[in-house]
Amino acid sequence: MLISKLDLTGLKCPMPALKTRKALKSLTPGERLEVHCTDPLSVIDIPNLIRETGDSVEITERAERRIVFLIKKAGASSLLEDRFGSLSLRSLCPYTK
Questions:
Q1: Which amino acids are annotated catalytic?
Q2: How many angstroms separate the CA atoms of 15 and 40, rounded?
Q3: Cis bond leading into 14, ω under 30°?
Q4: β-pair type (32-37, 3-8)
Q5: 36/81 Cα distance (integer angstroms)
Q6: How confident is the model over 27-68, as pLDDT tens digits?
């Protein structure tokens, strides 16, 4: 399991969310991104970004001045499973055998 690290300490809104979005685009499904922030608004911005992208925040850690997110990049199949469950085309279409 590959975990990429992204140090965004010192950056202010909206830069942590923008740089996180850019970093997520380069990951393959299943990879994880560990994001370190100091901007207090990142606790709002990054979870909202993750909802938009369909990825998932596995861990959020908040210390006195540092916020850490561990984000898992979703794959196309997991996005479909989240939306439709484990249905297959065969169960939906009476014409497939």
A1: 13
A2: 12
A3: yes
A4: parallel
A5: 29
A6: 999 999 999 999 999 999 999 999 999 999 988 889 888 999
